[in-house]
Amino acid sequence: MKPEDYKAALPPSELAASSTSSTPHRRIWRSSTLFHRVLIILYILALYWVISATRNMTPANADLSQYTESIFLPYIYKFSPKHVPQVQTTIEDVGIEMPVDTGSTMTLIGASIFPNVDKSIGTPAHHFFTSSKILYVGRLVELPITFHGEAGSHAIAKVPILLVDKSWTCPWYDPSTPAGRFECPRGPNGEEAAVRDTSKITYMGVGFGRNGPKDGMPYASPKVNAFLNVESIKGRVVSPESMRLGYEISSQGVHLGLTQAVVKGCTFTSLDPGLTHRDDPRDWAMVQMCFSIDGEGRHCGPGLVDTGISQMYIRAEEGFTIPNVTIRNPNPNGRAKMVKRVKPGTRLSVGFPSLEYAAMSYSFVVGDDSQVEPTYVFPEASLRPPFVNTGRNLLWGYSIAFDAVDGRFGFRPVDNTSSAHL
Known about the structure:
By secondary structure, the chain is mostly beta strands. Helix content is about 10%, strand content about 35%.
């Protein structure tokens, strides 16, 4: 007898009972199927998240054994929160104690420092620092830079240098203005910009990923980065086969050229291609990071270890308010009478490239005066993606390494008490 024949033969009362009794089984089966489908979806999402979180992780022991050329440039003065670290250089027979800034890209020298360089040559260019609000205007002129290493060693790089003809402190300058604007405009109330003495300008930016439209550095490509354009080390011409393009920076000095020994103990995270990567494979985007505040939230975006400043800038997800206080400006030369700071007692945890799967992570409590804590923490308005600029004090706990060939950024703890994941 077929099932339908059996069902037709039942009395009406039993037929009703048969129909109603089968419904719960169908519901249970459907619920079970839905449950399993949800589990599968959750598993796929979790797997995708893990892959996304770990996609930037790369081995710490990448084989660099073929690379032999490297030079160590010691800092002239002891590393300090009070000033940008400096290395000894010579340009046009002029000795310059050159600041090393990983938060910008380009070498800037006052044009009057080189009286023998023809003032009519060069390509017009400008450069703007968003943190200090300083605008530089001048000409790009290609010149060799000699770096002086330990024990009389030296390296020579050749890059376009911005010879600065004019400079202003320009707090109302808009970095997104067209590249053709080479003047500091008047302020909103007709204020005149403060003119700066160009004879005292010496600065060297060696960072990467700093050529975004709102960064104020439209010419900040690898071709103007002195650390990425080394032509010779210790009198020997270098090649892509002998010198691994990149550098390691610590609280002691700079290694130009990566070798197996230089990166020993580093854990690397991969970088995304930069804006001009197709034209120049040395161009890489800023390293990724995530941070939490008092153990809450997950704010992810670009990060920057900036040797050019001692303070930290932090920007959370839109809608999230970072605990902050308004205080009288401790800088007697500051423009504002009152300034914002992240509230003392706030715990900040930062991980590169994420908190869960970190090549390096560290935490500090604002106001506890730990060695890696910045001099102060400034909470930026949450108008753009999250961002952290650690400031240079991070180098008390970790050295950093940039591999411009494979696009990697590495961290190495200064000692075994750090929280790096090695």
